[in-house]
Amino acid sequence: MLNFIAGRYISQGSYKSFQPEKICRKWKIENMELLNLLSQADRQLGRLDMYSEYIPNIDLFISMHVLKEATQSSKIEGTKTNIEEALLDKEDISEEQRDDWEEVQNYIAALNQAIHKLEELPFSSRLIRQTHKTLLSGVRGKHKLPGEFRTSQNWIGGASIADATFIPPVHSSINEYMGDLENFAHNQEYYFPELLKIALIHYQFETIHPFLDGNGRVGRLMITLYLVEKRILKKPVLYLSDFFVRNRMLYYDNLMRVREKNDITQWFKFFLVGVIETAKNSISTFDKIFKLQQDVETRLQRLGSRSANASTVIKQLYRHPIIQARNVKETTGLSMPSVYKLIEEMENLKILHEVTGGKRGKVYFFREYINLFSNEG
Q: pLDDT over 70 for what percent of the chain?
């Protein structure tokens, strides 16, 4: 990207804020390495999209992709809830961990709501604000204007603005910048590859930092929303937060490198490598899910007449791989003695694993399935 200028620092008295250049304009790509990565990323996304189209009951498995994204994106912000903890009910989470748990649950709700809203709303500031409102409702950021752009200066890093790592633009310019970002997202006058477009949108959003809290999580969530809205993916099956977690310092460094050295090309390369790796890992996970399905079906055949009820339970477990006896009763309509017998047999087949160790209120995980997401990549 020749002659790219990220923006400039403007004195605000005791500090300098960064005012980025607008992005809704004509862009020219001349870096062959970047074009090669773009081609690879498009190819891998095409493969992933094909998988999502042909795997039966794909919606069953998307909820676990969303759960993983929620835990990983929140982890970047310092929360410590893992996938297994995120599956538990609130009362099963220790008091000191509940704030983290609630933030992950809000992320899941925000992402699911945003994907649903795409049916009636375009990728827009309005959608972003609604998503942010859900993300911050009732959690630690509830007093930081959920669903509203900030009306004061914020900063990144440092105990105060005096030692901040980065100071975003002044609040009075946010509506103008977000309008430019939205126009760029839907601009058809100038052609620009969609993957580079969302990479640039993510960078610009994080630079604008339009909210008092939750900017990182909303910015990462926007990537999936954009790919679905533009029909690059028919289903929301690509989430980059796991890649960003594993390369956290590079993620931050490459964003700052754009602002400090006007090097947007390095950020694009990093982003495309993330798309390539994540798409490959997601394809691998779908392959493993398919093999697990076949293996579990083979095991269930040993249950004879009870295999039909076990299959019903398994279908529910693919959507939410944690269950209790009352859930099995609701799903199958069996009597409680029959429920306990079915659970015992599914434990013997090593499909269910009890995790509480208690005699009452037992909780069972479908651990083989959970591990496919815990160990992805």
A: 98
